[in-house]
Specification:
By secondary structure, the chain is an alpha+beta fold. Among the domains are: about 15-170, no CATH class; about 180-305, no CATH class; about 505-610, no CATH class. Helix content is about 45%, strand content about 10%. A hairpin with a 4-residue loop joins strand 1 (about 75) and strand 2. Helix 17 (about 325-335) crosses helix 18, helix 26 (about 505-515) crosses helix 27 (about 520-525) and helix 29 crosses helix 30. The longest helix is centred in the middle third of the chain and has 15 residues, at about 205-220. The chain is flat.
Length: about 600
Amino acid sequence: MPLPLSRQPDLVPRETVASHVSRLAALNWIDAATFAADKGTSFLRIIAGDPAAFEAMTALGVTLPGDLLDWSPVKSGGALRVLRGHAFPAKVILVPQIRGCPVCLRSDAVGSSAPTHIAMALRGHWLVPHVTLCLDHHHPLVPLWRDPQPGSRNESVARFREIADEILAGRLDQETREPTDFDLWIDARLSGTAQVNWLDAQPLHAAATFCHLLGTALLRLEQVLPAWVRRSDRWALYQMGFEVASQGEEAIRNALRRLQKLADGPQDGPKKVFPLLYDRLSHDYRDDPNFKPFRRILRNHLVETWPFGPGDELMGEPVTERRLHSVRTAAQATDIDQRHMRRMLAAAGIVAEAAEGTCDGWETFDAAAAQPILDDLTALMPANAFAEFIGASRSQFDLLVKDGVLAPALDAPGVKAVWSPVRGRALLDGLLSRAVPLAKVPGGWEHLPKSAQRLKIGSGAIVTAIREGRIPGVGRLEGVEGYAAVHVNHADVTRVLGAESPTAQSIEIFAKLVGLLPPSRLKRLIKAGVIPATRLQNPKTRAFQLYITAEDAAAFHRRYLTPRTLAQEFGRSWQSLTAELRTKGIRPYSPLGEDFGPLYLRADVVSALS
């Protein structure tokens, strides 16, 4: 039979279910965990908002107010928690740090007949990390306690007992501030107020996070570094981003363009121009569908304004085709002076004449439409200049020519300028189109010509395999241009282009097998022409070296015996056999009078021992 509860706590607006149950348990002289167990459930299930937990409590006479769960983070499959109909990642909303407004908590104590630590209640909106201000008292939310364990963290009565005196004495109070538009907006979203701006149509957590990321990026307009902003001032970043994002997509694009003008050029890369914004949307939130609208805005802006080419990265994915050229990249692709390139493009009507404040890096145009004109402007180059243009040493260039990877554009004996930079750029685009960016060279990776050198093969074989898609491990080393940036996973190259191991035995293995050690003795016999060996290619080093094939081994055994093979053939210990040979005047074989160790002529041994 259910036992009636002696006392019920006062209902506090926006209180969480965990806080209410903790206070309910304390008013009945018991802790929350024991109280929940007595009611057929567990405190952790109550914290998670498990409906079965509340059904069990109801069956035993405990009915909680219906709106408690509205302001409590309820588990919603996987790692999500739902609060007021808005989904948040559990790692974002269930953090060890509990925050609150000390003025609200003092009001709880003053307006209740219950003991102070029982009267104080936690509010659900305090759990949302984007909420930084109490709108009732204009007081910032302050840290109350930190506990990594959900059970003890949500046992609010026990924790308030520890800090109630500090709260009442005002020792947790901080300077108040006026609410920002962002503060009002996020509270309205949590309260269910009607939509009034573009951000209202976006998922709450994603929209608030984007405001913070955009605000952090906008600090550059004020010449302020993000590291200078204290954690207690993060509210200002939310507001800076909200002022722009609440106006819609075009306002966001305008802000991105303003930030872009601060960079020296696209060569700085989007990570430097939009550091936190680009990194989070490209990687951390890449697969989160709630961030898709914000990723789309940034990606479209970059596609429409940045001269990305093969070897670059766009939102975490390698660029495989160039859509835009800038005056700078066009000059690089054709090896024409940048100022001369701008004048020629302006004469062709592709870009405007140079003016004060214009940046060749940001002056972009359609790459495909301008390609015929760029081809006409391209000047052929001599070999040394061409090698430098593609980022290769002269010896690396010569090897590529030898392997047929590069060929002159003009067959004119006596003319040095026969190499086309267009073909050079095509070579690099083919190598870098699927390359992953490398901040540093990982273990097991090599510069392409170095990998070829290790395998004793031509660089052209690796280039061909990359073009055919047979070598997946291709990378572009950041901070390096052209051919010098191309690195490969050497294990992938070996797997695709390495030779199979020969069936023959190495000199070292055969020497151990027959007991003729050290192997240097066998090598000297081979060098003297006494023992046969075959020159084969080492599959790892690609160098040619001597091996003992099955035919070589058979020839050895037909003519020679060693103590080990003596014992195997005659079924006696090699010590007794060699002693008997000595008594019968049989000495180790020593062609040219040299000592080659215990090697005997088979004919001498058989004659002596038969």
